[in-house]
Amino acid sequence: MIHKNVTNTCRQTIKTKDLNPTDTKGARIKASASGSGNKETVTTHYDYEISRSENHDHAASMLLSKMGWSARHRLIGGAVSDGYVYVAVNREVSS
After folding, report:
1. Inside any domain, residue 47
2. pLDDT at 8 exceeding the cut of 80
3. Containing domain of residue 50, as a range?
4. pTM exceeding the 0.85 threshold for the entire prediction
């Protein structure tokens, strides 16, 4: 439940999904953003040198960068049945 006194309007979720190889393209990861009116996406090639979770983390980070949020936010997330889901949260400012 969102309380009426909450003023933070930076609600952003990112979902990543495996895309299987086709005749013309290799395996890929697609990251999609939703929330705050945002419908951005980015697709990255699957890197077999790193783990599946690292591939999904990378795609989500690339989308965060594309939206200009990488310096101000960090991602928290985990695996779901068909990919990964992340929430972008404000970075804590160090004193």
Report:
1. yes
2. no
3. 13-90
4. no
